[in-house]
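[Meeting: bench + compute handoff]

Bench side (C.D.) handed over the final construct sequence. Compute side (W.E.) agreed to return the predicted structure before the next meeting so the bench team could plan truncations. Sequence as handed over:
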Amino acid sequence: MKKPVRVILLGAGRAGSFHSTTLRVSPAFEAVAVVDQDADRARTLAASLGCAWKTDPTEAFDTLDADAVIVATTTHTHTRFAQEALSRRYHVFCEKPLGELDDVRDCYRLARDADRALMVAFQRRFDPEFNALRTRIGEATPQLVKLTSRDSPIPSEAYLKTSGGIVKDCMVHDIDIANWVMGGSETHRVPVRVSAVGYAHHPDLKAWGEFEGVVVTMQYENGSLAVIDVSRTCNYGYDQRVEAFGSFGMLQLDNRRESAVIAHTGEGVVSAKPLYSFPQRYPDAYRLELEHFAAVVQGDAACRILESQVIATEHICEAIERAIETGASQPVTQEP
């Protein structure tokens, strides 16, 4: 049996907290330390893992004996901490986004130079139900894919100020899944053109200058389409659905719900609400993606999240933001 991957968890906020669940239960990992600028938060999460805690990432990188770093800090710090860890020859698992395009390229260059793994977190690709849908499609290519992602609860103003916006923070997962599902016999397919419209009705989001929702159409070179609608608000739970239509028929992935019981009576049909939020919907995906990272670090698997896919997703996000700003469809930059 291989030794567990010794890991430093950087960030004790909401992302760090749900990754800590995997560190507690998975034999693939040994938690070395939790690092957060908030000492109380770092100390509390470290106590639950039975490991050390620190407040200074640089000190942690320079003094601790570990194999890998999980970067689960605020969005605008991802690039800096990933670069710092890679330059010290740590393997890195980083929450999305890794950074702007030049940042992404630089991080992957550092990973190659150090001969270390770099994996960006796109957890839905590891969700058992998304994988079942992708397996059913096989080498076929859908003609139309529809994805719905409606968030619950509404994020805080403090979070939104550093999130990078609804496209790069929220819709990026749906973009990745659309390209993955459209892949056919390939790993991924990249759209050539996008159109997009945003809206805001919620008074708080309007006051904060944030989009409440965005609807996007992505057109692929073969004529297939993906339609994505995302919302920061949803009063009935965490709404996550996919529909794929093509020569194979139609495949639908519905919400996970608070109960699987559906009541059929003379008064109608009643089912439970979708689960409350993403930690409840995706616990398996978060565990499986980190265990895949461990397998990559130990040389037992090739990373399923490729540099070319991360770069393509960044190009698509930029094209969508231009489409929202201009009101006109935009081409998507294609990189070899």
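W.E. noted at the follow-up: The chain has two domains: 5-121, 126-284+313-331. C.D. will use this when planning the next construct.
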